Amino acid sequence: xRTPAVYQDFEPHFGRPTSYTKEIGESVxxxxxxxxxxxxxxxxxxxxxxxxxxxxxxxxxxxGCLARGKMAAKAFFEDQIIDNLDNARYNTNLLKFxxxxxxxxxxxxxxxxxxxxxxxxxxxxxxxxxxxxxxxxKMIGSDRTSKTLEIEEKDD
Length: 156
Known about the structure:
Elements: H1 22-33, H2 38-45, H3 49-58, H4 60-83, H5 92-103, H6 121-131, H7 134-140
Helix pairs in contact: 1-4, 3-4, 4-5
């Protein structure tokens, strides 16, 4: 059943009315472009950080603003790096810490590899037999043409 056009943009709201406006979304981009974190943005807006996440789910405009804000915040800190390349007094360790924690930067590259090894015991045995010196083959009673190597186990 199709929803009548008059109800297509209707979003039912329960509880207190939202204080979100598109201007708030744009101000988030500006704050984050100055290096603010999501927590700092929530504090400056006077809202709980959970409200930010709720707005992301409810308002596509806000979701886009927050995404642009994250990019702008990262660019802010990257600019700090570029602007202070020649500044010996600049705390690069603090900047590195901020970049690692906020944007996932890392010194090391971790690579995970997995593989499966299939072992053919007959082939290994044949290769071992072929590589044994002639004197050892005589001692164990075999020759290079045998396909199996019989080994006696002694009980002590």
